[in-house]
Specification:
One of its GO terms (molecular function) is steroid hydroxylase activity. Belongs to the cytochrome P450 family. InterPro entries: Cyt_P450 (IPR001128), Cyt_P450_B (IPR002397), Cyt_P450_sf (IPR036396). Pfam families: p450. It is a single chain. 31% of the residues lie in helices and 17% in strands. With 150 residues, it is α+β, with helices and mostly antiparallel strands. It has one domain. Strands 1-4 form a two-stranded antiparallel ribbon. Helix 3 crosses helix 5. The two termini are 18 Å apart.
C-alpha cells in the first residue's frame, strides 16, 4: 500500500481500469517482496553471472535484487501496475520450495485492492512509517494514513 501511495499515477491507472488489479498484485509482490532472502543449497554445478558454484554450496538469493534485475524486468526499479508478464521470484520459482500460501496471498491482495480501489479517491501517509526491524521479512508495523473516499 505504501508504494501505491507513493506512486499516485499508478493508483489513478487502477481507478480508471480496475481490471488491471490482478497484474497490479503481481507488481506489488515484485516491487516490495515481503521476504528479503532465502538460503538454498545447490544440487549441481552451475554458473551465475560468471561465478562458478559447485554442487552442495550454500547460496542466498536476495529476492529484491532478482525482482529488479534489469536483464529480466524493463525498468525494474519502477513500479508499473501494467507490467506483463511479471515473472518475479517473490514466492519462489516452483518446486519443493515454492511458497505454499502463494495462491491465498494473491487472492487476499486482489480482493483487498478491488474493494479499496472502488471506494478510495486518495490516500496520504500522515505520519512516520514504522518498519518492522528484521533481516528476513520486509514489513510495516504502523503507517498512519488519511483516506478520502469517492
Amino acid at each position: 500500500m505504501r508504494n501505491l501511495i507513493q506512486n499516485p499515477d499508478q493508483l489513478a491507472i487502477l481507478q480508471e481500469d480496475p481490471d488491471l488489479i490482478p497484474w497490479a498484485v503481481e507488481e506489488f509482490l515484485r516491487y516490495a517482496s515481503p521476504v528479503y532472502h532465502f538460503r538454498r543449497t545447490t544440487t549441481k554445478d552451475t554458473e551465475v553471472g560468471g561465478v562458478k558454484i559447485k554442487a552442495g554450496q550454500k547460496v542466498v538469493p536476495f529476492f529484491a535484487s532478482g525482482n529488479r534485475d534489469e536483464a529480466v524486468f524493463d525498468r525494474g526499479d519502477v513500479m508499473d501496475v501494467r507490467r506483463f508478464p511479471n515473472e518475479h521470484m517473490t514466492f519462489g520459482r516452483g518446486g519443493a520450495h515454492m511458497c505454499l500460501g502463494n495462491a491465498l496471498a494473491r487472492i487476499e491482495l486482489r480482493v483487498m485492492f478491488e474493494d479499496l480501489i472502488s471506494r478510495v479517491d486518495k490516500v496520504e501517509i500522515t505520519g512516520e512509517v514504522d518498519f518492522l526491524r528484521s533481516n528476513f521479512v520486509h514489513g510495516i508495523k504502523r503507517m498512519p494514513v488519511k483516506v478520502s473516499l469517492r
